[in-house]
Design brief:
alpha+beta, Rossmann fold, Ubiquitin-like (UB roll), Porin, 16-stranded antiparallel β-sheet, three-stranded parallel β-sheet, 13 helices, about 40% strand, elongated
Length: about 700
């Protein structure tokens, strides 16, 4: 150690009292210590200087300082013996104060000096996931009301001399404060600690507390085992575990492991159980055994029906726990090799007028050592012109799209380890042969689309991916083509004056002009999608959702491409249209009715959905829901108005079966007309959902 911490405080006059044997402990090993800071203002005051300098000298002596800012406790007040309650602060004000205080603390403490680097923790981070019932069950049951009432700080506020009394909010502050100690100890290795706050004295408006802690030995994970996996190979599970042998015990890492095992999709998230084995306080070790119950990870889609002028047949196969390595093992075919966590999907759909086929494969751990995901996909779709006179498909008139895409995704550590960065490149080939439908100004021509796509996403939803009880997920994506007009030396404003783009009468031929404009697609597409899950009471979960999309052009002379547009309204199920459109659900209206015929270049959507689980069994997860939604599509920014929205409400049911995926039905009522200027409500719509979630 660099200096003697106790001696340093003594000669500076900063030490009033000390627990026995403290100085001896501090001279023998590195110790973690924390001081709490109250976020009632956006600046630390003079009164905080003693606490800050204590942490500074603590770190200089070779120890690890922890500054705990009270984002949660700041929201409920502080029963510190004052005669009146403190004004409660809203979350926005608290966050502002916290960020300001963190910036000030960073000027005094060293956050990058190795083993004893300083840390700033915010108790809101571990309290935000508590609901009321969970808190009183897991924390409140350990505290006696008699004990809390006996404290002078409480008795003083409840006496006849007190005019204001004490609210339940500040009364429960004692539980919140006590849990701070427990959380810090349980997530820094002290599984065997015993914490007992003792009120020493109350003088005027000052309370003296002693927090008597019997730490015991720091606990370390010893043996980590997994049971219950019959199909999934051990290495697929062990690489996802955040609890490693030899790591210091952390309750939060156990919780995180349970969450990520549930999100793999191979196990029943409701039955993942971490069991403590061989807990040895003398040796300071604990074994963890994760009990798993496997569920079906493969899905079959086999449909037949009438639509689009004829019978439509669909065959879809998804193997979400596939094993390429097992292809060489004949004994592994049950019916296909499984167990390595890879995903393989094949989908075929056809009728008289169109056919489509797609194949995709992904490996979540490329090379097996790092969580870098590799994915690839190919697809081909062909649509024939419908002959209104014969009612048959004209095979000489068609529109086809062929595409391929390859990508890599990596889990990040900054800003936190819930983030993932995905990058991919893709190519699409559009071929129109005598296919005049009015959708494009040309019916003969070819287009090429080379694009780069990047997605920044964060997902910290709780355990069950079908029915999350909390957390959030969002994705910000950009799809970009090359800016061809910067280097192809084509003046697109002058094309109409060039003979090769004119008809026999010398007039501009718009079809020829558009073929040139869209020979190589030039565009950028920005999208945002955010979802938040909030557990209200029992298992009632409120899902809040917002999304936004914009398709733009680098060069306004070329204009916005006729492909890749947004079509809003209805069930959101992909139709067989061939222009690469994105369908966006908005229940209570007919499919794609809230966008123009050519598709929207801008859209926004907002929804609130209250969910309640009927069953979360491995065989079938079922939940009911009711929803409010609003949104609209726009042709340009001049028309964009998020308050000019189409509104709807309704209710529905979702059923998830491992073999068939997600199925559902919604009944939605549209409060507005699908047509501008019409004040009549659209009314009721029934939506069937297959293989997707809203």
């Amino acid at each position: 150690m660099n200096t003697n911490f106790v001696e340093e405080l003594k000669w500076r006059g900063m030490l009033h009292d000390i627990m026995p044997d403290t100085e001896e402990l501090l001279t023998q090993e590195m110790v973690s210590g924390y001081i709490g800071f109250d976020p009632t203002a956006d600046s630390l005051g003079v009164g905080n200087m003693v606490q800050i300098m204590t942490l500074v000298h603590f770190q200089r002596a070779g120890h690890k300082p922890i500054a705990l800012v009270g984002g949660a406790t700041g929201m409920v007040g502080d029963p510190s013996g004052k005669s009146a309650e403190r004004n409660l602060l809203d979350l926005a004000t608290l966050n502002h104060n916290l960020e300001s205080q963190k910036a000030q603390l960073a000027k005094f403490l060293n956050f990058d000096c190795g083993e004893n680097s300083a840390e700033i923790v915010n108790n809101y981070d571990w309290f935000k996931e508590f609901d009321f019932l969970g808190f009183i069950r897991d924390v409140g049951k350990h505290m006696s009301v008699n004990y809390m009432m006996a404290k002078d700080s409480v008795k003083k506020r409840l006496s006849e001399e007190s005019k204001s009394g004490m609210s339940f909010t500040e009364f429960t502050y004692q539980l919140v404060q006590g849990y701070d100690f427990l959380h810090l100890y349980q997530n820094n290795g002290y599984l065997f600690s015993n914490i007992n706050p003792v009120e020493v004295s109350v003088e005027n408006d000052t309370i003296n507390f002693e927090i008597r802690v019997v730490e015991g030995k720091p606990a370390y994970f010893n043996k980590i085992t997994v049971v219950g996996n019959t199909r999934t190979n051990d290495h697929v599970i062990y690489r996802e575990l955040r609890t490693k042998p030899g790591n210091i015990y952390s309750k939060s890492q156990i919780v995180r492991t349970v969450r990520e095992l549930g999100q793999m999709g191979f196990f029943d998230p409701e039955q993942i159980s971490p069991d403590f084995k061989n807990v040895d306080p003398n040796a300071g070790t604990v074994d963890i055994e994760y009990g798993l119950v496997e569920k079906g990870a493969s899905q079959v889609e086999l449909q037949g029906g009438y639509g689009g002028g004829g019978f439509i047949g669909t065959l879809g196969l998804s193997f979400n726990n596939f094993s390429v390595k097992g292809l060489k093992d004949k004994a592994a075919y049950k019916p296909l090799p499984m167990g390595d966590g890879q995903a393989l999907s094949l989908r075929l759909q056809a009728n008289r007028f169109y056919n489509t086929a797609s194949f995709s494969f992904s490996e979540p751990w490329l090379g097996g050592r790092q969580p870098v995901s590799f994915s690839t996909s190919i697809s081909r779709t062909k649509q024939f012109r419908y002959d209104y006179f014969t009612g048959q498909a004209n095979k000489d008139q068609f529109f086809e799209i062929t595409g391929a895409q390859i990508g890599l995704a990596k889990k990040l550590r900054v800003p936190d380890d819930y983030f993932q960065l995905s990058q991919s490149i893709g190519y699409q080939y559009y071929n129109l042969s005598n296919y005049y439908t009015g959708l494009f100004t040309f019916g003969d021509g070819k287009s090429n689309n080379i694009f780069y796509q990047v997605v920044l996403a964060r997902d910290n939803t709780f355990v069950n991916p079908v029915f999350p009880l909390g957390g959030s997920q969002f994705a910000l994506s950009a799809k970009l083509s090359l800016p061809y007009s910067l280097f192809n030396n084509i003046d697109y404003d002058d094309l109409e004056n060039q003979a090769e783009y004119q008809n026999e009468d010398g007039e501009p031929d718009q079809a020829l002009i558009d073929q040139e404009k869209f020979k190589w697609l030039e565009f950028y597409k920005i999208k945002f999608n955010g979802t938040w899950y909030t557990r209200l009471v029992d298992k009632f979960v409120l899902k809040t959702h917002a999304e936004f999309g914009f398709l733009g052009a680098y060069n306004n002379k070329r204009g916005i491409i006729p492909f890749d547009r947004f079509y809003l309204g209805g069930d959101g199920m992909s139709q067989y249209a061939m222009d690469g459109r994105e369908t966006v659900a908005l229940r209570g209206y007919t499919n794609q009715s809230l966008s123009s015929q050519d598709g929207s270049t801008i859209y926004n959507k907002f929804s609130l959905e209250l969910r309640y689980p009927i069953s979360l069994k491995p065989a079938a997860s079922i939940f009911a829901l009711t929803f409010l939604e609003s949104g609209n599509g726009y042709d340009n920014f001049r028309e964009f108005n998020p308050f000019n929205a189409k509104r709807s409400a309704g209710l529905g049911v979702r059923i998830f079966m491992p073999a068939f995926g997600l199925l559902g039905i919604d009944f939605g009522y549209g409060f507005d007309s699908e047509f501008s200027g019409d004040l009549k409500a659209h009314g009721w719509e029934t939506h069937f959902v297959i293989g997707q979630n809203f």
